[in-house]
Amino acid sequence: MSTTAAPMTVDEFLKLPEVEGEKMELIHGEVVSMAYAGFLHERVKSNLIKILSAWLGQNPFGQVFAETTYRMDGEEGLAPDLSVLRNKRLTPVTKDLPLGAPDLAIEVVSSETAARLRTKIRLYLKYGSKAVWVVYPEERMIEVHRAIDHVTILEQDQILEDHDALPGFSTPVAAIFEGL
To answer: pLDDT-derived band of residue 21, with 50, 70 and 90 as boundaries?
Structure first.
């Protein structure tokens, strides 16, 4: 006779001991460990932080966060590489995780499986993200997901605009891959 473990809740997940250098998420009640991403991944994140911080400094719309875990529901706790929360969701700050998905979730692809990435995109959109940017450093392209079946693919010579998640935002895609 075999037994199946019950899905873990976000509260149980948060009580797990932290493992130095390891990023973990909770997807459908299952703990998922993320592999080390590498310098290419981190360089793209750094470029995005610089671009988004500069824009948000001029347009006080919200705040950018790196690897912040969001409580989607009882069995979903995701930590996008980067995220943006609108100002109205920033207060009051509590010790608990932000509820729901970020207004904008950004995933920089390095070692994640396609199936897991699709699952995360669906969850972000289901729980309130206005958009999900999936950044592919090696291909130097970006997918902008605004709905489950609505994807825009941008190449390095194009302009990234996202009127749903960041009204008025615009940057050359090439700027995200600068220095690679």
So the answer is: low
